[in-house]
């Protein structure tokens, strides 16, 4: 930073027996989304009593620039305050890599592919980090350093929160079955398109590789999974709720064989999914002050109000009403809403599942 | 504003029968404290069915600069973003006025004093607004225009909220009995010292005047009251809760004879008070991420934790603990806490009653 | 906005004789880049004495949300403060449109193509503006409304500024010859790739159309040009300099036949160009406080310092120096630098021409 | 900070021979006012070749919270972003201390008074720092720690800058003669009223003490001086100009006997002064975009324009003009102006000397 202060990040590494998949978990890449740090705290506490089969790396405060950047009372969380670029859209992806790799190693055994392709990816990141004469943005430097660690794991969890939000999960389409290992009722299935986030940056290369081998007739499964886990609302720390979520994550890790079986099991619940393209943002049709009405997580029938907007400037105007009810003509499941009651025309009011289905 | 946009404020005036005290109610002088607008909406709805004995003026969106100033997702509420000055510390007060007035009108009858002293105050404000060759700050111009309206009323309510907060009331010491007309369990009693806020700006001159007449042996009561009503948390609109608060305000107005009796009565409840000097801010002893534990409104025994602070950088350090519990060695009543979990050393964590008593 | 204030934009339309190309000029889509408003003022003054051959539309304050959004003393200019999205990356582009059009109108005459393709584009925008059940972001609504006006013109100028900057021009590769009509010594040539900006949003469709007709053997020239004109530094109004730039723009309009010849002629000067891919950002290799040294607009030989960074925390450290000189090992032309001396590691320090050439 | 990062400040202490007054110089208490750091750099370089008669302490980056707090491209400088309180209004002052001291030590010799009163002040600060069960704000903790160091010196210089500004000096009325030792043409004379700033916090107690002894018939001079030195504009580092200012400061230190004579002499120049009450802020009478016209530092005759405000929304309105010229009906000397061209009604446009005189 300007005064010469160096920002660092604590990294906790726990060795496993080497018989299970390795795990990487980070939290707080978005400054205001702090609850993941509490979940990492509870994981560290719980893991002391577990048998680890794979190595586990945990990184709280993953973005110390973002998590220390107060903007008034709140934390300016989602993007670099100088450039506006989302901190979770700056990871690296090379869409040529899988093809080039398969050309060079068409017949290699799966273990060598696994380790060698990982080396290729790490070299590619190092190239970006170290050999750029014009330098690198603040956000890319942070992202690439985290990505270096994440790429060394088989299972990657990036802990986020929404603004005011229920729990939900971003899951690669191919890993859909794993979504049910978490105690999270709502899952967004994302395609193999890199849009800059850590989950994509870590699973897309392997998905690409699988497809490139398939194109030459080999059917391989590298068993790599990455999830963005949305833990609830931003600007909140709740250590009790964090314990619940830590256990949910251990349930997933047990199911994948990263920790020895110890009775962690997902709750029975109705789980809803929707495709990323059907995960819709509802923008405010007018400026005003919003009384958010819809309950999170439950199907909201067509015509039922999502919210009502108060417009006191319209009170006593003959042809206008001070309360405007917002509805949709289809059933949706509201997942999260904007963090403040005060909105402009065009502010992101809600994110919601449309065309949802049971998982 | 810079592009030439003119910001205006809706003002609702309802005529009464002229037999009761007049009333001025404003909301949202702090940008993020929006719930007062919803209370004014519900008041306007309820007042249609009441008999008004005094005139009532209601001003939502009292500070359109503040309430439209988004700072990221949130509303930058408490102060002028350019100067840092609190929007509710820019009202005008002339501490010579009462003395000068009594010198000029030692023997006048009370009704003339009432109207003439008001005229003096309005002239004094106009002098500030219009005859300043070097101009006026944005905030003073807003404040003085509101104050002109407020000074014309007998009863003044300034609707605010805390960050994350329970309901509470700021009340002049001399009007302590009126605090019980509201459905609000916690009252801060403020002395006759002008510190810039609207309640002070409207009651201090009359209190001064009372004392100045007392000094020459006349005991007068002008029956002026001003309250800052803290409705709960900022950044929220809840029209149902606003209806509850609007009825509480009507209870006060009925008790003071501003509306005809119509069955509004305060609930029975334990009401706590504390003097302004005992309304303490508790500052964070360290930076970190806060899990707020104490319940609002209830006495918290000495030694019980207010909050615990998570410091993941301390995890695995031999001589340090990742969880720091914050306690006090006296019983207090927590009233509100900071809006975010992320704090620096020295951030205002809690405001709390110390040395409290039952009202 | 939240209080119900409606933000509007002044639009000045001047009819021409209908014999020359029509013109659209806007300013201040980025909030802090205000000088374009002064240029529009001077253009309106100068145009009163010119003979207009085509219609001219001028739009100052194009983004009233951005230009009224103060963030402390400065104007938060480049992006939506809620989402972080650059205000000049939200225009609409449909990359299927040209192909579809040529399929439907392979043989139509050029004037019909011109008017009909414009109608297609406007319908496409209207579709976005009016038929989206989930609504539209604040920025897209603003952008699409401006784009509707811009698409009706033949020549489009979008007036911007850099942070601390010399004058420069973004110009489509095919319109390279027109760059010399402006009194601007530095030109960045941009390819036919839509990246969200107004210039691209208005020229790329026509370039696409030209290529789509070429693919079926017709060689058409629609004579559409769009430029982003960078007028100097942000946060400044200089009406005298604006007059200089207004005359430079009239020079271009005269050269294109939009106004009758009246002696406006570009100055003789060395004009440098570089391709967009060679217009490099130089990121700060460390946090610190920057003394910017390089002169704008002149080739800086390899090894000469761009800047020196002060790091007082390094003073008196044996192995470190408090002054760090930043150099490159190639000759570049510095065009602009960051607005503040205080930078983090990774802050955009300079933008500069590499591999430049004389135009 | 929230992630546990500890912010520290480099402190440079150079021992002198002990025959001259000791010196304390700090820079950058306001985040954007960075040039003082460069001056401290140049002082450290120059002091290596000087003979120090008194000890010198130099503190760059005095406020690491403020100087690392970016708000968009710029540094949020003047106040705590959470509370709005000016970082330079949080020093401590106990207006009872001098009286109490003189009561206890009416007849003590001057050297003992000097050392003992200093001890009282330090104890008073320590009491604030360490014995407050409710804690301390971020800003007060920073301020008190700096004040502890400053109180140990005889001469205190607090290095600041204006927004866009010429060089000027705040000087206690009694130290008026010392103003001419600096190469700074404009001086504001401040009375013995504590308003929170470091200069006042360090000279007011001694001034009080002098007056308290005078009241009992002793005429003492403690030879303590404090200045706020305004170096020019914020957001700028200029090491060459810093060398000029460092030499000017050495001129003052030589004149006061803190360094051995070495030929540093103030330039001959007309020096203007004005009383603090006559140092006026000129607030913008309207929102708009400002072309600042008045030259800094030179008397501006009555009726000459300070600035003109562009209001494009008024262009083509019959009864309005797009350019509004701002004038005063008295001669003033403009010292600084606002940092941005975009202003609201009521924004601080200029600070200027009225009723000025030659020093």
The main sheet of chain A orders its strands as: 1-3-2-6-10-8-9-11-19
Query: What is the average per-residue confidence, as pLDDT of chain A, rounded to a whole number?
Result: 96
Number of helices of chain A: 7
Largest interface: A-B, 46 and 46 residues
The count of DSSP E runs of length 2 or more, i.e. the number of strands of chain A, is 19
Series of secondary-structure elements of chain A, N-terminal to C-terminal: EEHEHEEHHHEEEEHEHEEEEEEEEE
Runs of chain A with pLDDT <50, length 5+?
none
Q: Describe the oligomeric state of these chains in a short phrase.
A: homotetramer
Second CATH tier, the architecture of the largest domain in chain A? 3-Layer(aba) Sandwich
Strand content of chain A: 15-25%
Total domain units of chain A: 2
CATH-defined fold name of the largest domain in chain A: Aminopeptidase
Q: What is the name of the CATH superfamily of the largest domain in chain A?
A: Zn peptidases
Distance between the termini of chain A: 46 Å
């Amino acid at each position: 930073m300007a005064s010469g202060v160096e920002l660092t990040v604590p990294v906790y590494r726990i060795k496993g027996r080497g018989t299970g998949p390795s795990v990487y978990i980070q939290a707080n890449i978005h400054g205001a989304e702090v609850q993941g740090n509490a979940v990492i705290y509870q994981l560290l506490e719980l893991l002391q009593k577990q048998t680890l089969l794979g190595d586990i790396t945990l990184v709280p405060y993953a973005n110390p620039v973002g998590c220390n950047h107060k903007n008034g009372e709140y934390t300016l969380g989602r993007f670099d305050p100088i450039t506006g670029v989302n901190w979770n859209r700056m990871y690296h992806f090379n869409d040529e890599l899988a093809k080039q790799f398969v050309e060079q190693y068409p017949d290699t055994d799966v273990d060598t592919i696994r380790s060698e392709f990982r080396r290729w990816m790490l070299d590619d990141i190092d190239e970006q980090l170290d050999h750029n004469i014009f330098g690198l943005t603040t956000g890319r430097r942070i992202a690439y350093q985290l990505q270096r660690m994440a790429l060394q794991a088989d299972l990657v969890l990036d802990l986020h929160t929404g603004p005011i939000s229920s729990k939900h999960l971003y899951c690669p389409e191919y890993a859909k079955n794993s979504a049910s290992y978490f105690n999270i009722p709502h899952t967004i299935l994302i395609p193999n398109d890199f849009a800059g986030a850590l989950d994509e940056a870590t699973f897309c290369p392997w998905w690409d590789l699988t497809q490139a081998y398939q194109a030459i007739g080999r059917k391989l499964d590298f068993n790599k999974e990455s999830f963005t886990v949305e833990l609830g609302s931003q600007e909140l720390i709740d250590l009790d709720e964090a314990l619940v979520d830590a256990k949910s994550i251990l349930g997933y890790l047990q199911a994948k064989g990263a920790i020895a079986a110890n009775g962690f099991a997902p709750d029975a619940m109705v789980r809803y999914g929707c495709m990323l393209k059907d995960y819709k943002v509802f923008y405010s049709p007018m400026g005003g002050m919003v009384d958010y009405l819809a309950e999170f997580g439950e199907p909201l029938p067509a015509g039922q109000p999502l919210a009502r907007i108060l417009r006191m400037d319209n009170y006593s105007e003959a042809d206008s009403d001070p309360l405007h009810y917002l509805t949709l003509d289809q059933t949706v499941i509201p997942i999260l809403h904007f963090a403040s009651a005060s909105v402009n025309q065009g502010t992101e009011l809600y994110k919601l599942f449309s065309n949802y289905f049971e998982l």
